[in-house]
């Protein structure tokens, strides 16, 4: 704990640059500046980059990570961690596809079933972590195996093709606003972030997310039911992953049981966005800009002909750079 | 002086033969203590004398293994801190139990937030900031802004924030564990004034302290613990620091 020496003048009305740089809002501003620089560099480097249609491509590409990362932001601010979300995404896609092809519950039934699976996995995670005090890392890795295994078993390791046009529209249609054609997944991501931003900023639940992440024992003593909040957050994490999985299945036109898990991309975007691993600090705005930044980097590198292998390296380096800066700024 | 008579009438809390054992170890044994409204009781004793275990039983952190607790004459059982809170007993531990990442206002209202709309439960920030300001001013607590994050506060300001929260919760008995341990001279002064202000509002205060000067300045009675037992209760006005120290070290005379 850094015990800051008395700073009585900090709120005397003056603007404190160092204080701002350390604050969670400062991180967002820093990321925005980084994003603008990256956009400027790629715009200069490639004639195809600075273009509305390319922007929309980026939007679609980041939407899956974006939806899941919004929910993960809440969980991680509260000091939690969920590594089972990649497996839940695949499971949700497969469940939705199987409900569509093997029942007559329709698109609504498929989405509800997928979300129910996510909520159930989250509930199991939350119960073990909150009530028994199991380490979230271990618990959610274990659930990752369980869910992945079950998904492969129930689907006989085969992709489930989706032909329902209404369902496919979730991932493949566009919303036309004036001359803009916004891909549906981008819209879902922005809506998700808007709702969770509102929750974090204006509601009691949002306040408790920060409070539990700040000091769970203090919340407990203040009469807040920390276990319930923890379980709700893991359920939300599972639901978010399921929603992302539904959109992913709609984009791919299939529920794919063996896709590579994207949980690490989600978690690294959230950390890049300024959420403290120790909990208590972070903003949805930061996650949004971080997801955009990673998406822009990948897209720009693709346009410049840099292979996806090196893009992975770059994504890793950006994260290392971000956490290093985060460490250094505390010495300001 | 009025509080000479405070030990008259009905006690707010009464501990009868209360004890706590962990396996073969008797941490606290057969303690009898009545706490009256508007009274400050100091709890003193060497390390391991059972002071902390005793207050934790009153705070609902530990359940007693023997004896009984009465609140305003009615027997109660505290199996967790929430039960004690419901009985209007609030405890401030040395770590203060504040969320450092949140503002002064957030911490004052933690667990008692004002909201509107029963479904969305939207926070009424402005109202809470105004009420916090009024509360801090009433208590004479010098914190410039209720928006300030607790991480940026001094030790005394943190202590005051914790006390303001307790006052907000409407506690009738406030238990303080070593409140002045981390405070400077001026901050300790402010703390003692705050405790006396609580007493004048009719609240009971139980304070564990090693600082004899503080104990003699603010308490009405002093309870001396030794090896898990309450060996003596002295009226502060009828004793001396020397006598208390001798009781702490040598036990019964």
Give a quick precis of the structure.
Chain A is mostly helical and 332 residues long.
Structure report:
The complex is a heterodimer of chains A (332) and B (253). In chain A, helix 4 packs antiparallel against helix 5. In chain A, 73% of the residues lie in helices and 4% in strands. Chain A has one domain (52-329): ABC transporter involved in vitamin B12 uptake, BtuC. With 332 residues, chain A is mainly α. Mean pLDDT of chain A is 91; it is low at 1-13. Chain A has helices at residues 17-22, 24-45, 52-77, 85-102, 106-132, 136-154, 165-172, 184-202, 204-214, 216-221, 226-252, 263-272, 284-303, 308-329; strands at 160-161, 174-177, 180-183, 254-255. Chain B has 253 residues and is α/β, with parallel strands linked by helices. Chain B folds into two domains: 1-88 and 172-253, P-loop containing nucleotide triphosphate hydrolases (Rossmann fold, 3-Layer(aba) Sandwich), CATH 3.40.50.300; 98-170, no CATH class. In chain B, helix 5 (155-168) runs parallel beside helix 6 (185-200).
